[in-house]
């Protein structure tokens, strides 16, 4: 964009025609850092504001190539579930590209990725920068990951990684065009400051084993999903208002629509060096059910 894209007042505030050049330089610097730190050399990397925006972009770009994007047949994050159909009518388009939620946010279930890399767009919100990172980057075709979750880099940025051999130059060029219109200066600066800080650790290496415990009322509490993640989930059909408030204080979540409790852990470290946090999960359970 030329300098006249900014009003005179904003030109004074942001340095006139240098603003867009500065944003482009910040973006390229961050792209290089993310590629190096998270081993994304096999991917073209793009940045947008959120996973939902990124999926909407991909849906539009694939549709232009007569390819439909639909949801795989498992549970997804609710806002994404509302955006996309679970299936596409046969014969309407070259359907078959599905959104796979790598780690179910409500159960911790691990959904397998297509090891041939074809026909999946992966929501990697709960696997990127965790102990499942290698599975993701080895088996993904396109994946999206917010940088405010387990990477803990910045708010307002989501990474889209595309294997160039799997998708056309046109799609990747248009993603680059979208990228330039959706990312502002502040989150890029925040991300680079985080990554360049002394002693920064890029991964959430917390690991939680399977949990199986009897509660004082005689109910059995068993964790759902995949062990080894930085989160664990439990089916809890009823939860008192006091327990819900306590969960918030423990930085956990209770999902009314699925009647599941999620407890998460955050331990910074390097890929391949998990830290077992199961003991602290038992402490949280003791607080929630007043176990002494």
Question: Could you characterize what this model shows?
Answer:
The protein is α/β, with parallel strands linked by helices and 292 residues long. It has helices at 8-14, 18-37, 51-64, 78-83, 133-139, 169-182, 185-196, 241-249, 278-288, and strands at 44-48, 69-71, 97-101, 120-123, 142-146, 158-162, 203-204, 206-207, 212-214, 220-224, 231-235, 253-255, 260-264, 268-269, 275-276. Helix content is 34%, strand content 19%. The strands form four sheets. Strands 1-6-5-4-3-2 form a six-stranded mixed β-sheet, sandwiched between helices. The protein starts with 7 loop residues before the first helix and ends with a helix.
Which terms would index this structure?
292 residues, alpha/beta, six-stranded mixed β-sheet, 9 helices, 15 strands, 19% strand
